[in-house]
Amino acid sequence: MIELSPLHAARYAYVPKVPEIFLESIVNIEPRATAVVEPKKDREALKNAFPASYGKPAVQFVASQKPLKTNPLTVGVILSGGPAAGGHNVIAGLFDALKKAHPHSTLLGFKGGPSGLIDGKYIELSSEIVDRYRNTGGFDMIGSGRTKIETQEQLEKSFENAKKLALDALVVVGGDDSNTNAAMLSEYFRQRGAAITVVGVPKTIDGDLKNEWIESSFGFDTATKVYAELIGNICRDAASGRKYWHFIKLMGRSASHIALECAFLTRPNVTLISEEIEAKQMSLSSIVDLIAGTIAARAAKGENFGIVIVPEGLIEFIPEMKLLIAEINDIIAAAGASYETLSRGEAQRSFIASHLGPTSATLFSSLPEAIQAQLCWDRDPHGNVQVSRIETEKLLVEMTARRLRKMADKGEYKGKFDYQTHFFGYEGRCAFPSNFDADYCYSLGYDACLLILHGLSGYIAAIRNLAAPAKDWLPGGIPIVSLMNLEHRHGKDKPVIKKALVELEGKPFKAFSEAREAWALSSDYRIPGSIQYFGPPAITDMPPITLQLERHS
Q: Which of these is catalytic: 168, 176, 177, 206?
C-alpha cells in the first residue's frame, strides 16, 4: 500500500472554518427573506419560463428559536462541467449537514455529471467514501460531465429517475450552464407535481459566475494562486536569464478575471484584458503595437526580457477577429457535411479563404498559417470556435516579431527578441484547494443543505462577506432565475445565466489601470510562491485580491 504524503494526510485532517451561524444546531437555523432579486433584462419572458421560482426573495440564514422538524432525506448530488478545486468539500459539507439534520439521511452521487441522472447511474456516498476526499482537489469522487439537460426527453428521464430513487432533493454543482440545468429541472419537477427541491452551487475557475450576492465562484482562488506561482517562477527566471520574453496564456474564455487576479499577484509587464480591448475597439494591429512598444521601451533600458499575460478568450474580443470567426462559423455551418470531408490544413484553409468577404479575407491571409488552420478546425457542439485550442500567445509572438523587425529597420528598436510561450489551464483545476476554497466550498455544501431543508427550490447557494474571516461570512441563497437572461442559440431564444465580465468601471480594474504603466517598465515582479496551508491567517486564508478590492471601500 502506498503511504500518503505528509501534506496529503494533513489536508485530510484539516477542519474547514465556517460561518458562525453554522455553529448553531442545524435545526435552529432558518431563512430570512430579504430583497426580491429580479433579472436585469428579459423579465417577462423569464417570468413565463420559470413561474415557480420567479419573483422569490433572496434569503439569509439566521438563528431560529423554533427548531425545525426533520425527517430522513434522500438527496442526489451532481458535479457538472470542468473540475474546480473544492468540489469534494462541497459534497463533504452537504453530507455532514444532512447527517446533522437526520442521521438516517442518504446522499447519492450521480456518476459522470448530469448524464448520471439521465441514465440513472449513481453510488451511495458513505462516510468512508466522503472522508477519503475531504479537502482534496479534483472531481474524481463521482466524476463530472458537460451534458446539458434541455430536451423534453432528458427532462423526462431525469424526472423518472429522481422519482424512482425517491429523491427529496438534488444539488447541482457547476457553472452557468450547469445552474441553468438546475433551474430547468426545478421548474420541470414542479410542473410534474413532484416536491423535489433542486438547488445549485456556483463553480467555475473562470470567476465569471458572480454578482452582488454571489461574490465569487469556487475554484477561482486556488486556480489563480496556482497560475500565479507558475508565473512568478517564470518572472524570476526571466529576470535571472535576462534573455526571453514569456507570453503566457491563461484560462478564461468569456472573461478576464483570471488574468486580472494573476496580474495583481505577479505584476507582469503587459496584461491584456479582453473586455477593455473590446470596449476600446482595439484591432489586432494595435494590440501588437502595445506589446512591441513595451518591448522596445524595456530594450532601451537594456532589459530584453519580460512577461505578457494573454486571456484565453482574447481572440473573440478583438472586433475584427470576432467578425472573422463569425464569418467562418457561418461558412462551416452552411457547408455542412461537405466541409467535414476536407482534411485539416491546406484544404480547409483554402476552402474558407475562398468563401470569405474581402475584409475578412485580408485579415485571414495576414495571420500565421498555423493560426489560420486552427480557426478552421471543428466547432464545439454549440457551433463555437474552440478558443482553448487556438494558440493566441503564438499568434501574438509571431506578429510582434514582425512588428519589431519593421521598427528595427526604422531605427525605432534596438534589442534582441527571443521568446517562450506557455498555456496554463489544466494545472489549476484539480490542485489541493487553498484554505479559502476549502472553507468556502464546505460552507457552500452546508448552505445547500439548509436550502433543501427549507424547500427553497430553484435557488443557488450564495455566501456573502467573503473578504472577511470565515466566521463572519453570511450564508443564504438567491433564485437562479435572477441571474438569467435570454440568448439566441441555435435559432431560438434560450434562458441562460449571464456571464459576469470584468467591469472596467470597477475597483479592481481601476487599480490595475493605475499601476500597469509602472509595471510595464519595472522588473520588480512579485513572486507569490506556492499555496500556503499552515501559518498566519493573513497568508494562509487570504481571499482573492480582486475580491478584496471589490468588497473594501
A: 206
